Amino acid sequence: MIPAGEAIGSFLTARRMGRAGLSRARFESWQARRLSRWLARDLPRVRAYVSAPDRLDDLPITDKATLMADFSAYNIHGITSDQVRAAIASDCRIGSLTVGQSTGTSGNRGYFVISDGERFRWLGAILAKAIPDLVWRRPRVAIVLPQSTPLYDSARQSGRIDLRFFDLVSGPDQWIDDLAAFDPTVVVAPPKILRHLAERGVALAPTRTFAAAETLDPVDRPVIEAAFGPLEQIYMATEGLLGVTCRHGRLHLCEDSMKFEFEPVGDGLVTPLVTCLGRQVQIMARYRMNDLLRLSATPCPCGSPLQAVDEVVGRMDDIFRIGGTLITPDVLRNAVLDAGPGIDDFRIIQTGPETVDLTLPPAVTKAEAQAAVAALTALLRSRAKGVKVTLTRAPLTLETAAKLRRVACHLPHTDAS
């Protein structure tokens, strides 16, 4: 199938399998058949799974370290990580294949290798889920991310989208006038950038606004929506397109192209294992992600059978380990935000087994700052009596070279399970 045909086929599949009225039972039956075909046809083509068992449940769990330790064993062409690095330094191509890398939030980058057909299947899926009503009007799409990727070339090549990339790392001052002149109908950017643009009063009037690439904290949403209207989400990583918000504002997982399993973490949160059913060049089976999700227990009013997510809370690396127990980022965040309505930004960093730093901007009143310290201290001391919270008052400026993590654990990472 030609690339354009791949995009159209993917678009139609995503629309059909996410449609209102399709029962969960019928969807799961369709997904099970697709999974069986993938296990029989695609999985054994890579060295890592030549003698793999037939059942998904019997496959070993993998993660970034597993794949990077022997990258060539997980793609059908035996491409090594050294070859990927060399290609990234050049034109991101190895023959007819496209390669790329993650932004390296956790300190090490993950690599991907995909075919042209897979690039266009990604395009079809994201168009079907994010802007199906706009795709026929040639939308102007502004992408603000730390690095461009050849994936976006498929959008440009389609002729259906006027897409422009704005380099997050170089900072808004370098391109903010160009962004305004482009007058995008769709904006995709990290929440911190959307909030920054809103607070600067940049004259944009997008039809659709998507937060992507970072955790969307509740404190940012009202600021962004006051400037640009309803805020939606695109949940995407090196592993592929993971979820997109429906028109009812609920994030739905892309179960039409991925099989999700969930490992409980505690406090109603899970971390996903993903099996990428649309990936045939580089195989990802039962790949453990680092994200913390709160799944929705109720069906979405949109009627889609795809699993809804109430919140992407953060990352496993951001869980605090205090007194032998785990405290998730949302619990820490809420303790500070609930201390006063004037707190609209903060940083909470665990620096030692019983030491935590809280940074608040100078605009927060003394009373609210003291209340935040007291609330955070009470929470932490309910787990370990000797915990000390240190307050720092400092401006919280926009950082474009790294992802924003308002809650972060700086202790050496160990298996949280």
Structural topology:
Blueprint: H1 3-17, H2 24-41, H3 64-69, H4 81-88, E1 93-94, E2 97-101, E3 111-114, H5 116-130, E4 140-145, H6 151-158, E5 162-167, H7 176-182, E6 186-189, H8 191-200, E7 208-212, H9 221-228, E8 231-237, E9 240-245, E10 251-253, E11 258-266, E12 269-276, E13 287-288, E14 291-295, E15 308-315, E16 320-322, E17 325-327, H10 329-337, E18 347-352, E19 355-360, H11 366-381, E20 388-393, E21 407-409
Parallel strand pairs: 4-5, 4-6, 6-7, 7-8, 18-21, 19-20
Antiparallel strand pairs: 1-2, 2-3, 8-9, 9-10, 10-15, 11-12, 12-13, 14-15, 16-17, 18-19
Helix pairs in contact: 1-5, 5-6, 8-9, 10-11
Write up what this structure looks like:
By secondary structure, the chain is an alpha/beta fold. The protein folds into two domains: 3-315, ANL, N-terminal domain (Rossmann fold); 319-409, Alpha-Beta Plaits, CATH 3.30.70.2210. The chain is built from eleven helices and 21 strands. The strands form five sheets. A nine-stranded mixed β-sheet has the order 5-4-6-7-8-9-10-15-14. The protein has a four-stranded mixed β-sheet with strand order 20-19-18-21, covered by helices on one side. It has a three-stranded antiparallel β-sheet with strand order 1-2-3. Helix 1 (3-17) packs parallel to helix 5 (116-130), helix 5 packs across helix 6 and helix 10 (329-337) runs antiparallel to helix 11. The longest helix has 18 residues, at 24-41. The protein starts with a helix and ends in an 8-residue tail after the last strand.
